[in-house]
Known about the structure:
alpha/beta; Arc Repressor Mutant, subunit A; Rossmann fold; 3 domains; nine-stranded mixed beta sheet; seven-stranded mixed beta sheet; 16 helices; 16 strands; transferase; PG_1098_Fer; methyltransferase activity
Amino acid sequence: MNLNLLNPEVQEFIDHNLNTDVHSVLLGKNLFPGIENRELVEQLESKKKSQKKLPTWFGTENIYYANKLNISQTSSEATARYKADLVSGDTLTDLTGGFGVDSYYFSKKIKLVFHIEKNKELSEIAEHNLRKLGITNVSCFSKDGIEFLETLQDTTDWLFLDPSRRDSNNKKVYFLQDCEPDVTRWMHLFFSRSNNILIKTGPLLDITLGLQQLQNVYRVHILSVENEVKEILWELKRNHKEEPMIKAINLNGNTRESFEFFSEKEKTTFPEYSEPLSFLYEPNAAIMKSGAFNLVGKRYGLKKLQEHSHLYTSGDLVPFPGRTFEISKVFPYNKKSIKRLGFQKANITTRNFPETVAQIRKKTKLKDGGEHFLFFTNNHNNDLIMILACQIGKTKR
């Protein structure tokens, strides 16, 4: 840490230049003694990136920011707050502490949190910021998480891990065994220190594969923010042998959409099919990731358009965890129907359709945006169709 960055005049410069061209700063002459312009740019970029993702940090004076890669990899406050609601007890050990966002929120629910981070500078940054944020029940240690756990004499109520999804060449990896640490290798050690383990993985990890590789999974939380899957949480409990519950969660401001199910129930549920009726439903991203394509329709009394389209319909409007549309018209997909559309802009979605959005835009000459929604899909007879709809809650033109 370069503590010169916390000088009042430097902090004032950062606050007033968040939207400046960082290249002009980087290539210009040094602005402050004892500070390289590269360090100044790092603070500018990371603070700006934190404005929406980490508003508590952004709104607190004298926060020291890690580089923008660390900020991009850290949990958002929305997802960290959700994780904190899953834990309780006296102690939690965060084995991959990073910038400290998760540890901050864990400290609201746990009496003593251990923040373990092998990167010494990042550990110091987290400790500095936690103190500025008024947190006194988090102890920071600059040490490898596995080494710390091996020397831990006592048990801990919870273990939390967010394995790094970057290899030694800083390239992204996606499988558990390629992440650092490889949690599949250390399960015995984890359960020798705690009865409860929470593991965060990236949104691309296959749920079925994760269940095969991890032990004693109690619940799987697929966590999306504003309809974009951000992370998957694996909640493990010692000796749990029953089928895990899968929770698809979509956080949107102060609202939370939640859909819970067991995979076996999904396998034994069979959908009903129908032509498009009055309303169209598109599940949120977390449900799409979960694979609950039959259950979601059955639970809300909806019929499916086609086996692989994952779009649903009903005659009467029902509340639904996702986007809801009122259907204006259904067309067969052909040149004549395209000519009859009569507008220049539309939001286009394809579901189980042989052409991409880009190909459709080229063919229809439709620009992106506006209040019209066009779904290109097929019906239960496998006929290609276009559905013109207006999103519920949006004003019609």
